[in-house]
Specification:
Elements (H helix, E strand, L loop, with lengths): L3 H14 L6 E6 L4 E6 L9 H7 L6 E6 L10 H9 L4 E5 L3 E6 L9 H24 L5 H20 L2 E6 L36
Length: about 210
């Protein structure tokens, strides 16, 4: 059943979060109560010891939403996923200027340790980056598509292996809850060849 209060609280937080230039993490219960928000640095955010104590043991009913400001505007990172699994949280959301990325705990639980999840992420990141690098160098992929989709594709593969409910949707104010994740049709545009791959910079939740 749709929890409208939760949807409204997340929408209010994330509409502002997408415009922030530094990271901020907000801890929201599955009932729709925002417990607190933590302001962080350009690519990281860490709650205080006191704040950590207030949420200790409440992970199963907590969703953590935080932003990834440019140039750290990637999908959910390995560190984000590891912290979420270690705390047994209900879910993690990462907000960029364009996208909202969501990973929710499976009904059966996460099923792996945070260390195992990190190893699985590393495996898929290495394989996916190799493929993206090859396609980019062979003019089969634009720099923009590379930057927008590398970490997203990694998380799709990680989520498939672990059974995680993962998706993303565009930050349309009127339709934030509708997924618009479609692979763009490649246009036959020319670009100058380059030996460099696009810059991907990923921040950390903690």
């Amino acid at each position: 059943m749709r929890n409208q209060k939760l949807v409204d609280v997340l929408d209010n937080i994330e509409t502002k979060s997408a415009k922030r230039t530094k990271e901020q993490a907000c801890y929201v219960t599955t009932e729709g109560e925002c417990l607190f928000c933590v302001d962080g640095k350009k690519s990281s955010v860490t709650p205080s010891d006191k704040q950590i104590q207030t949420i200790k043991g409440k992970g199963k009913k907590l969703i953590v939403t935080h932003n990834h400001p440019y140039p750290y505007d990637s999908s959910i990172t390995k560190e984000d996923l590891q912290v979420t699994i270690n705390n047994d949280s209900a879910g993690i959301r990462a907000i960029t200027k364009k996208w909202t990325y969501v990973a929710m705990r499976p009904k059966r639980g996460w099923g792996v340790s945070w260390i195992e999840a990190g190893n699985i992420y590393d495996k898929h990141f290495k394989e996916t980056k190799k493929q993206f690098d090859r396609d980019y160098q062979n003019d089969k992929m634009s720099a923009k598509f590379y930057e927008d989709n590398l970490t997203h594709k990694v998380m799709e593969k990680v989520s498939k292996e672990l059974g995680i409910n993962y998706f993303r949707f565009e930050n349309d104010e009127k339709q934030r809850n509708k997924s618009k994740n479609k692979t763009p049709v490649k246009k036959n545009t020319k670009r100058k060849s380059s030996s460099k791959t696009p810059f991907i910079n990923m921040g950390n939740l903690f």
